[in-house]
Amino acid sequence: MKSLNPKVPDWQGKRVWIVGASTGIGEALARELASRGARLLLSARGREALQRLALELGHAEAVPFDVTDSAAWAAAAGQAWPEEGGPELVVFNAGTYEPLRAWELTPETIRRTLSVNLLGVMDGVATVLPGMLAAGRGHLVIVGSVAGYRGLPNAAVYGPSKAALISFAETLYMDLLPKGIAVSLVSPGFVATPLTARNTFHMPALISAREAACEIVAGLARGEFEIHFPKRFSRFLKLLRILPVRIHFALAGRLGQ
Fold first, then answer.
1. If you ran DSSP here, which 8-state letter would residue 18 be given?
2. Peptide bond just before 230 cis, omega within 30 deg
3. Which end of the chain is more exposed for a tag (fewer CB within 10 A), N or C?
4. Nearest to 53 by CA among 43, 67, 38
5. What are the UniProt keywords, alphabetically (predicted)?
């Protein structure tokens, strides 16, 4: 069966912009791609950590900015190899997470999460897409989460933000495929990062950030649209999507315990 996206088997010299690169999956992916010869632009809010990483990796430049500042996107994109037509592949990995139950919702936590996880990604796509369309090529990689598949405990805002990203990525794929732009959706399960360290409940099938980065690289090499992992957990949640809601509530409700 033909892959949904062009396969990415070789990273040597490839211009990659990773947004959300200072910690967790983004940092691990930067390390993995640097080892494969990619040229990296690394962005996040944490200036010092970002600059240390860029210096360590070589062939990498740090461009710190806040993804919730829509004007800052344009300024950052202006530094992304403008003389060569911009980045060939952009990874939208910046995100935030607070384990929240329904009774813990506040307007501040709602807006803080949606501004980073959803609006920041949409602003970024709107910024880089015109250049890709003009070039007739490019690849957008959107990092969502299996928490967006269906409602889950402790994800009163995080889950909906990632569900919206799933819909956004699917829509982008259909719109941009005829125009030569590839779109990939990354759906991680539990990954050991500073954000998931906030969880006080058991996290099934927890994997390291490096394992997550390797899964992403392997999925891109296969030309997959959705790169979901670890399979032993993500497939279980995919099954929950098609089960009757009564069964979903009974099984998913146990995940937050």
1. E
2. yes
3. N
4. 43
5. Oxidoreductase
